[in-house]
Predict the 3D structure of the following.
Amino acid sequence: MPCRIARVPAELDCPSVLAWLKERKDPGLDVTGTVRNILDDVRRHGDQALRRYTRRFDAPNLPARMGVPVRAIRSALREIPEADLDILREAIANVRDFHARQAEQSWFTTAPDGSVLGQMVRPVDRVGLYVPGGQGGETPLISSLIMNAVPAQVAGVTDIAVVSPPRKDSTLNPYILATAALLGITEIHRAGSAWAIAALAYGTKSIRPCDVIAGPGNIYVATAKALLVGEVGIDMIAGPSEIVILADDTANPAWLAADMLSQAEHDPLAAALCITASQKLAEGVRKALAEQLPKLSRNDLARKALELWGGVLVVDSLEAGLDLVNAIAPEHLELAVDEPFALLGRIRNAGAIFLGQHCPEPVGDYFAGPNHVLPTLGTARFSSALSVQTFCKKSSIIATTPEYLRQHGTKIARMAHLEGLTAHARSVECRLEDI
């Protein structure tokens, strides 16, 4: 039996479902002390520490120069089949088009007294992107490079550094290099894990410090990012992946099972849930999962995820299912129902919403255009997908005139006096004396 079937609320009420899923937040592996030591080591010893960690854990014969030459980045384009390059180009174009619509403009307003108020939007100066190498460097997360680099570029960031753990022979997968070349990125360093994050934050002789760090990684990467909050900008502290499918009896159980497995194969902590009011569909999904699971290349990971965090939850009605979805606030939500747009307005909490029977989650992961870096573990209640705004900062603009102070100065000074801040009040009052 690859996953449970539970009736809600008869067997599991909503709070119990949420409590169960939140157990994924703490897998029992606390690496905070180790990561804190790594951060301090890199801050003190820079490239020396980077090479030491990388040679120990990834590439024993890593050369002294960790940066990838620009010519090697560009020459990787010749190692990739042209058909694959075309797919990457199209995916990049789709992601760029979507994020271009997120760009915000600076704005100003003027008043009759001559005062000017506004907001100035500017990109951060430098961004560091972490790109996992995958299993032994052979399954590189090229989609993550695209999803992190493009919104930064749309924001106007021109200085982007990429770090990625090298393979045992000290090289990076050519697909990472070729994708970077297509994106116009020329700075790539062979370093991974927490030590790479430390280098992006603090800077070393070969890697200049960054203002914002983005990109997914393992628990060491996530912990390093969490410890650096407040010193540099962080995209988000992502937890394990998750998918929730709200389905009615028009859905194809084989398709639903495939969609659940698409997340279960990520990680043993990944959650894959189907919510339905149809007991028949629930049984069909469980049967399809059992049939499809053995055929997966990562079936060991997917099996463990399904056993621990997978389930088909049978609710009394579609209305009850909607309530449960909003309570879970999933990273990915599929509305596999006959009329998905009729339910869209009822969804309050979800990272990304996939509408209809022909829109599986991988469409968003790779190609459609919206960002696949999404809030997890219920944080979609208050946070959003990675966006152009992640790489922007906003400055308030205030320009007031003598007329403005004549009209409002005494009010401002009075508020300062109420707070006991007489110097604040005086800075206004001294001007009122002279105008």
Notes: The chain has three domains: 4-27+239-381, 32-77+122-234, 400-432.
